[in-house]
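Researcher: Structure prediction, please.
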Amino acid sequence: MDSININNQMLKAMESLNAKNKKSNKMKEAFNMQTMDWMKLLVAQLKNQDMNTTMDTNEMNSQMAQYAQVQAVQNMVEMQENLFAMNTKAYAASLIGKNVTVADTKSVVHSDGKKESQLVKVTGKVTGITFFKGKPVVYVEGKPYDMKQVMIIGDISKPEEKEES
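Model: Predicted structure follows.
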């Protein structure tokens, strides 16, 4: 019974990770759009200013400084993402030849016609690594799995129960 609960929790955690990844990408796209909108607004403001009452240079310098800060933060985030990607690739490569257990899902159709996803644990030796769209794909006994699916590295055996004396 506990095994089923743990499997269901792990399945929910895997689904949650995928959802958070998609949300992060959407937020990144929205941030880039806001930057472009800001630049368009600044250009329109400069184009349409009244020659008799031009834009305040202090305000313009302040806006440019804010834009520079936004760009610096974007560059820093990009560098951190690149560093994370390099670390992930190095970690994935270190798994070659090791025994791992990965989580996989399979769809089961019950007698009443209802479909359900079930967690399946696959154990085997990592035979290779590829990088698809910058993300490592782990091959366990020749079958590809996403790096996020790796649950256990090595052989985790249950401790033997001690006899009471």
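Model: The mean pLDDT is 77.
Researcher: Thanks, that helps.
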